[in-house]
Amino acid sequence: MSIYIDDVDSKIIEIRGIKALLDCDVASLYGVETKEVNRAVKNNPDKFPDGYIIIVDKNEKDELVKNFHQFISLKHSSAPIKVFTEKGLYMLATILMR
Q1: Neighbour order of strands in the sheet with 13-15
Q2: Could you tell me which residues are beta bridge partners of residue 90?
Q3: How far apart are CA 86 and CA 71, in angstroms?
Q4: Measured between alpha carbons, how far is 11 from 29 in angstroms, rounded to an integer?
Q5: Rounded to an integer, what distance in angstroms lies between the CA atom of residue 21 and that of residue 14?
Q6: How far apart are the first and last CA of the chain?
Q7: pLDDT band at 5 (very low <50, low <70, confident <90, very high)
Q8: How far apart are CA 61 and CA 71, in angstroms?
Q9: pLDDT digit string (tens) for 26-45?
Q10: Across residues 71-85, what is the average pLDDT?
C-alpha cells in the first residue's frame, strides 16, 4: 500500500492549534474502515496518551462542517469524532499494520 504526500496534505486540518487528521481520513489513507481505527484505539488505550488523539467537541464539529465542504457527511453523525496528531498516526500505523 502506498500513501502519497498529496493525499495526506489535502486532509490535514488544524484544530486547537495542532495539525491533525480526522479518523475517517486516517481510515481511508490506511485502507481500513473507520470502525477498525476506533477499535484499535479502544483496544489499546495505553498506546494513545494525551496529545496523540483529540476528541472533537460539538462546536469544533459544527465549525468543520460549516467551513469545509468535505466534512458535510459529519453533520448528522452522533459518533464522537477523533483526530490524530502526528504521534497518534504513527502509533495507529504500528497497531494496524501488524
Answers
A1: 13-15, 18-22, 81-84, 53-56
A2: none
A3: 20
A4: 10
A5: 9
A6: 14
A7: low
A8: 9
A9: 998 888 999 999 999 999 99
A10: 80
